[in-house]
Amino acid sequence: SPYTNISNPQPVFARVENGITGCFSITNFNIVVSESPVANVPTALEYCDTDNDGFGIFDIRSTENQITGGVIPGQVTVTYHETPEDADNDVNPLPDTYTNINADAQTIYVRVENVLTGCFNVVPLDLIVNDAPEIAALDAATLEECDTDTDGIAQFDLTLSEPDILNGEDPLTHTIRFYNTLANANLGTGAGEINNVNAYSNITPNSQVIWVRVDDLTTSCFRVTNLTLIVNELPVLVQLPGLETCDAVSLNDGIEVFDLSSLSEQLLNNAPGISLDY
After folding, report:
1. Are strands 120-131 and 155-156 parallel, antiparallel or unpaired?
2. Binning pLDDT at 50, 70 and 90, where does residue 22 land?
3. Quick one: DSSP state of residue 168?
4. 142-162 pLDDT per residue, tens
5. Sheet holding 207-216, edge to edge
6. Which of 130, 143, 152, 229 could staple 219 via S-S, CB 3.0–4.6 A?
């Protein structure tokens, strides 16, 4: 002892002899080596962290079929543990829905045990928390155009908002898509996507909110914000009479000094916040 078998199964014979009389008996038993159950290392589970605190909720039970290779239920038991020691000793199993306790990334351990033989295997399962893009907050981005025909509709180049929307994120590693509804933006499919981004006319006169989805090409995480389109009215002006003055008698050359600003108040019709250039 210890003894390594030479076949599987292998019979072993035991002789028990009385040390005084020399009488003995012989019995036998088989030693059997059972195979450990299949336990494949699963693909890491990833979570998109909308508040970027490094913690997420994982459906760890969703990896069971990949780990066991689709073994018929009842032939093996699969349990999840925070440490390899817990997995080896089959203690402190985790719930099927698990929140990581180590920020950003954590490895847990999966025990696969054959219900008949008790043989088991342990494999690691990586949990990865990915940050969502840190884009512009809701109601932070706007585009403005002037209403040239007083109908409240204007044409917008939505791509001009992209630097503000990205808020410092790398445009080479993120995609930006525009949608008419929040629901379609969250789905991220072609449904409801605005395709004429360089020449989009607002649907709601004067002001409209559209939705912007930003996807991280590396992690596939996304975040949705909005973009407000504002159509501004043109300044209201009044038609003015000409300015007249007398030509200096000494010159009579038809040239005199005019104070153009003297009519500013009438021209602007007391409208606030408007500048005037001549």
Report:
1. unpaired
2. very high
3. T
4. 999 999 888 999 999 999 999
5. 141-147, 222-233, 207-216, 174-179
6. 130
